[in-house]
Write a structure and sequence with these properties.
nine-stranded parallel β-sheet; eleven-stranded mixed β-sheet; alpha/beta; binds zinc ion; 18 helices; binds alpha-D-galactopyranose
C-alpha cells in the first residue's frame, strides 16, 4: 500500500444507524480530518439474508456517500461473523472446541475453517463485493475477515489435519519417526488413528496448572496445521478478490503477539500488513514498541497500517481507564514512528447496543464534535497532514531480534525443565535493552536475510535446524555478532532432540557444551558476576563447559568402550579447529559457583555471546549496551531523558527522529 497522505480514520458501522446520522457523521469526519473509513466489517447477515439472496442496497448507499465525500475506503468482506440462518441450515459452519463441545450460533469469529459451507459462501461474498464495487477508485484496500484466530476440533478439521500430515510426511512410517511414536506405544498404522491433540486426547493439566501436551512433535504439527487451515480460508477470499481487482492491495488485521497464527506465513499472502493495537493501562512500553516492530517485520520491514486503536477507552479489558490527554496522540505517533503509514481507530461512532457500546469512539454517545476525545482526534488529524513526507520510509536498523512462532509454540509445549520459562517475555527482555538504549531494531524471523545487520539476538532458539545453524555460522564468519541464550539448539524441526550434547548444531560456533540445566524457583535465584557487578540468575542455570571438555569426554569414551560405529555418528564429530569460548561471567552461588554463565567466542571475523541464564532488566541493558558498542551498532540519540522513547524512520526525504515522552515529562528537545 503506497499512500500519498496519511490515512486517518478507521472502522465505521453506518449500517447500525439511520441516514440522518450518516450525514452528520460525514460532516464531523471532515472536521476531524478523517480521510479513510473501514467499512463492512460485520454485515454478512444483512448482505445475504438467505441461501441465494443478496441485498447490497444499504451498502451501495454507504459506498456512494463515502465516495461523494472524497473519503477513502478499506472495504471488508464481512466474513468474520456468520449469519444465524446459515448456522441453523448448515451446522458444519459452527466450531467445536477442544473438549468436543459443538458450539451453537453466537458471538463472532465463529466459523470452522474446514466447513464446506464457509468455503463456499465466504469467497462467494468476497467475489460479489469485488464485482460490485470494483470501479470505486476510492477503495484503497481490501480487508479480509477480521482478526483471524482460534481453533476448531470438529470432524472436518480432524480429517483435514490427517490429510495435511499425509501430504507433509508421505508415509505413516515417516510420521512415526518424526513424532518418535515408539514412546508410550503411540505407533500409528493408519492415518485415521491420528487425533487432533486436545483435551480429549493428548492434553493434560500439569502440576503447575499449565495446559501441556504429551507428544510435542504432534502438537507442533497441529499448531502449524491450524495456522495453515485458517490461512486457507483467508486465501479463498483473497483469491476470489484478486481475480477481479488484481491491483487493489489486500490485508487482514493482525493482533499484537498473537499465539495462534504464524503471521510470518500469513504476511506472505497480504499486500501489506496491518494490526490492531490495544495496549492495557499497564502494558510495558517495550512490549508495545516491540509489537509494532514485530508487525513491521512480518511485513518485510515495509510500512504497515495501524488498522485499529481506541481513541479513548476499550471495553473488553479488565479495567478500562481513559487515555489521558495526549496519550492517544502518543500511541498513534508511536505507531507512525515504528513504521505505520496510517492511524486508524476502532470505532468512528460508538454503537447503540450489544457488546461494544462502552468502547471508545471518535463520536461518542453524546453524538457531538467538540468532546475531549473528538478534539484530540481533530488535532492529531491536522498534525498528520503535515507529516506526509515520512510516508513510505523504513526504520534504519543495524540490529535485529529474532522472534519465531514455531519456537514460541515449542517452548510452550516443552515439559521441563521449568514451566515458567516464557519465550515471548524473554524476547521482550532483550528487545527492552535496545529500547532503553534508544537503538532502532528490527524483529525478524528465521528466513530473513541477515546481511544488513551488525548484530542479531536470538533468545531461546530452542528449535533450530542444522541449516539455520550453518546460516548463523556464515553470518558470524563474515563479521556478524550473534547473541544466544539458555534453551538454544535443543531440537530439530520435528522436535527431536539433537544427540551428542547441547546446544546441538551451535556447539562449535559457541565453543561450549551445556552439560545440564538447573531450574530455579522464582523466589530462589542464583547470582552471577559480570563486568564487576553482581546480577540475579533466574529460572534456568546452564551448566556450561568449554567445548574441549566434550571432545575429551568423547575420546575417553572411545578409549574405554572401544572405537565403536556409534562414535562415527555425526553427533560425535567435532571440527578440529573449533575452539573454546572465553568466560565473561560466572555463577556466585551453589555447587556450580565459579562456573561459566556468560561467555563469548571469536569465530571467523565475528563474535558470539552466550548467556546461560535469565536475568533482570538492568543486566540486559548493561550487557546489550556493551555488546552493541563492540558491534558498532549506534543509538538513534544519546543523553535522552528517562521515560522518553526515541525512534527513527528514513527515506529519500530525510531522517525523521521521534521523541516519544511516555512519562509525560514535558521534555524539551534541543535541535542538534
Ligand atoms: C478488535 C476487533 C474490533 C473491535 C475491537 C474492540 O480489534 O477487530 O471489531 O471488537 O477489537 O477493541
Ligand atoms: Zn472445524
Amino acid at each position: 500500500m503506497r499512500v500519498k497522505e496519511f490515512l486517518y480514520g478507521g472502522d465505521y458501522n453506518p449500517e447500525q444507524w439511520s441516514e440522518e446520522v450518516w450525514e452528520a457523521d460525514m460532516k464531523m469526519f471532515k472536521k476531524a480530518h478523517i480521510n479513510e473509513l473501514t467499512l463492512n466489517v460485520f454485515s454478512w447477515a444483512a448482505l445475504q439474508p438467505s441461501e441465494d439472496e443478496y441485498d447490497f442496497s444499504k451498502l451501495d448507499k454507504i459506498m456512494e456517500l463515502v465516495r461523494a465525500n472524497d473519503i477513502k475506503v478499506m472495504l471488508a468482506t464481512s466474513t468474520a461473523a456468520t449469519p444465524p440462518w446459515m448456522a441453523k441450515r448448515h451446522p458444519d459452519i459452527l466450531r467445536t472446541d477442544g473438549n468436543g463441545m459443538k458450539r451453537k450460533y453466537g458471538a463472532r469469529h465463529n466459523f470452522c475453517p474446514s466447513s464446506p459451507t464457509m468455503r463456499k459462501y465466504a469467497p462467494l461474498l468476497a467475489q460479489k463485493l469485488a464485482e460490485r464495487y470494483k470501479d470505486y477508485d476510492n477503495i484503497i484496500a481490501w480487508h479480509i475477515g477480521n482478526e483471524y484466530g482460534g481453533e476448531c476440533h470438529c470432524d472436518n478439521c480432524q480429517k483435514n489435519f490427517r490429510s495435511w500430515l499425509q501430504k507433509k510426511y508421505g508415509t505413516i512410517d515417516e510420521l512415526n519417526r518424526a513424532w518418535n511414536t515408539s514412546f508410550w506405544s503411540h505407533t500409528y498404522y493408519d492415518w485415521d488413528e491420528i487425533q487432533i491433540p486436545d483435551e480429549r486426547s493428548e492434553n493434560f493439566i500439569s502440576e503447575g496448572g499449565k495446559k501441556i501436551t504429551q507428544v510435542q512433535g504432534q502438537f507442533l504439527d497441529y499448531k502449524r496445521f491450524n495456522s495453515d487451515i485458517m490461512l486457507e480460508e483467508y486465501r479463498l477470499e483473497r483469491d476470489a478478490i484478486k481475480k477481479i481487482t488484481p491491483d487493489i492491495p489486500i490485508t487482514t488485521n493482525f493482533m499484537w503477539f498473537f499465539y495462534d497464527l504464524n503471521y510470518r506465513e500469513w504476511a506472505k499472502y497480504t499486500d501489506f500488513v496491518s494490526w490492531d493495537c490495544y495496549p492495557h493501562y499497564d502494558t510495558d512500553p517495550a512490549e508495545l514498541a516491540m509489537a509494532h516492530d514485530l508487525i513491521r517485520g512480518v511485513g518485510g520491514q515495509k510500512p504497515f497500517a495501524l488498522m485499529e486503536s481506541s481513541p479513548s477507552v476499550t471495553n473488553w479489558q479488565h479495567i478500562n481507564p481513559l487515555k489521558r490527554p495526549g496519550q492517544m496522540t502518543l500511541y498513534s505517533l508511536e505507531a507512525v514512528a515504528h513504521g505505520a503509514d496510517t492511524v486508524q481507530f476502532f470505532q468512528m461512532r460508538r454503537s447503540k447496543g450489544a457488546a461494544e457500546a462502552m468502547h471508545g469512539a471518535v463520536i461518542e454517545h453524546v453524538g457531538l464534535a467538540g468532546t475531549r476525545v473528538f478534539d484530540e482526534v481533530e488535532k492529531l488529524g491536522s498534525r498528520l497532514e503535515k507529516m506526509n513526507e515520512i510516508l513510505g520510509s523504513t526504520v534504519p536498523s543495524e540490529a535485529a531480534v529474532v522472534f519465531d512462532w514455531e519456537n514460541w509454540w515449542s517452548i510452550d509445549a516443552l515439559q521441563g525443565p521449568n514451566e515458567l520459562l516464557d519465550y515471548k517475555s524473554e524476547c521482550i527482555n532483550y528487545y527492552r535493552a535496545f529500547f532503553e538504549n534508544h537503538i532502532p531494531v528490527d524483529v525478524i524471523g528465521l528466513e530473513d536475510d541477515l546481511s544488513k545487520y551488525k548484530l542479531v539476538v536470538a533468545p531461546m532458539l530452542f528449535m533450530a535446524s542444522k541449516d539455520y545453524a550453518e546460516k548463523i555460522k556464515d553470518y558470524v564468519r563474515n563479521g556478524g555478532t550473534y547473541v544466544a541464550t539458555a534453551m538454544t539448539g535443543y531440537v530439530d524441526k520435528n522436535y527431536l532432540f539433537y544427540q551428542g550434547g547441547y546446544p546441538g548444531p551451535f556447539k562449535e560456533l559457541f565453543g561450549l557444551w551445556v552439560e545440564e540445566q538447573d531450574a530455579l524457583a522464582p523466589e530462589a535465584p542464583n547470582h552471577f558476576e559480570w563486568n564487576g557487578q553482581e546480577y540475579e540468575a533466574q529460572l534456568i542455570c546452564d551448566q556450561i563447559r568449554p567445548l574441549s571438555e566434550l571432545k575429551k569426554l568423547i575420546e575417553q569414551n572411545k578409549k574405554e568402550l572401544g572405537d565403536l560405529a556409534y562414535f562415527k555418528s555425526p553427533a560425535y564429530q567435532i571440527s578440529e579447529e573449533a575452539g573454546d569460548m572465553t568466560v565473561d561471567g560466572t555463577y556466585t552461588d551453589d555447587f556450580y559457583k565459579g562456573s561459566p554463565v556468560i561467555t563469548e567466542n571469536a569465530f571467523g571475523k565475528g563474535r558470539v555471546y552466550y548467556i546461560g541464564t535469565q536475568s533482570t532488566p538492568d543486566f540486559y541493558k548493561s550487557f546489550m549496551s556493551e555488546v552493541t558498542k563492540k558491534a558498532g551498532v549506534k543509538p538513534a540519540a544519546e543523553n535522552v531523558e528517562e521515560g522518553v522513547e526515541v525512534a527513527v524512520r528514513e527515506n529519500e526525504n530525510g531522517r525523521f527522529l521521534f521523541y516519544l515522552d511516555h512519562k509525560n515529562n514535558r521534555v524539551e528537545i534541543k535541535k542538534a
